[in-house]
Design goal:
Elements (H helix, E strand, L loop, with lengths): L1 E3 L5 E3 L2 H10 L4 H11 L7 E2 H15 L1 H7 L1 H6 L6 H12 L4 E9 L4 E10 L2 E8 L7 E2 L2 H14 L3 E3 L2 E3 L3 E6 L2 E2 L1 H9 L3 E3 L9 H8 L12 H9 L5 H6 L11 H16 L7
Parallel strand pairs: 1-3, 6-10, 7-11, 10-12
Antiparallel strand pairs: 1-2, 4-5, 5-6, 8-9
């Protein structure tokens, strides 16, 4: 059987890959087999990968909201759009998790020109210049021109001393972070010039997906039990992570939900972050 990719290309349907993605959502082997049994009665030759995803998502949601939420991570990152502003905020939280202090949305004067800087992160003697490349299409790739351009910006800024977090310091590392994929040339160029690259699936084992799953750093847009308007309200108040709800359940009062709905939202958030359910207070 063939499935149609977002680009329109027809490729062989990979059952092992589908089941693997369901397992990564946290579904048990029994649940995976149950979902596949239902999917196998519906799928057809030439079905789009988008339709396949929606079907799997719906069936996971019927089993448990948190399974569907984890399965939707890639889409949830795209839902931080349409601009890259919220993605930059989320990337800052990613670095804060590893004990960095962060700043976002600054304009810095380089040796030659001024630069809009997405994220600055500092830990110990290291000062990181972070460039965020947000993409809101399914198969988007970041080409080699992006790390080339970013390298030139880093070079223009790295010899200058800046005062962040009450201490003078210079940039020591350059990071290019994207929710999309990196082309082979982009990776080779970045590695050669010692740029730190972080994308949806790169580097292996410590990619965005790996970091999110291991640390529970899911964007709030993952949640399936609140609607878009409610998500937008919380995001506007700078609540970026599902963890924010787990740590401060009272923030759900901002969306005007009933106690019952707040309990359901909290349960999904807690299961997504911690893998188990605790009491809502």
């Amino acid at each position: 059987m063939k499935v149609k990719k977002y680009s329109g290309e027809l490729v062989d349907f990979d059952l092992r890959r589908l089941k693997g993605s369901l397992v990564k959502s946290g579904a048990s082997s029994e649940t995976v087999e149950l979902i596949w049994e239902k999917m196998s009665k519906t799928i057809f030759d030439g079905m789009s990968t988008r339709q396949l995803y929606k079907l799997a998502f719906q069936l996971l949601k019927q089993q448990r909201n948190s399974l569907a939420a984890r399965y939707s991570l890639k889409k949830a990152l795209r839902d931080l759009g349409p601009t890259g502003y919220l993605f930059e905020k989320w990337v800052a939280r990613l670095f804060e998790h590893t004990d960095h202090q962060t700043l976002t949305g600054l304009i810095l004067e380089g040796n030659a020109v001024s630069h809009e800087v997405d994220v600055i992160a500092q830990k110990g003697n290291d000062l990181l210049l972070v460039e965020c490349k947000f993409r809101n299409t399914v198969d988007a790739k970041v080409s080699v021109t992006n790390p080339m351009y970013f390298l030139s910006r880093f070079v223009d800024l790295r010899d200058k001393e800046f005062n962040f977090f009450n201490r003078p310091t210079k940039f020591t590392q350059a990071w290019l972070v994207t929710n999309a994929y990196l082309t082979k040339d982009a990776i080779e160029f970045g590695n050669y010039y010692q740029l730190n690259l972080l994308s949806w699936d790169y580097p292996s084992g410590i990619s965005i997906k790996s970091r999110v799953d291991s640390a529970g750093l899911y964007p709030l847009t993952c949640l399936t039990s609140i609607n878009t308007q409610e998500k937008d309200k919380l995001l506007s108040l700078n609540y970026i992570l599902v963890k924010d709800i787990v740590e401060k359940p009272d923030i759900l009062e901002h969306i005007g939900a009933t106690t019952y709905r707040r309990r359901k939202i909290y349960q999904e958030a807690d299961e997504l972050v911690n893998g188990l359910s605790t009491n809502f207070e």
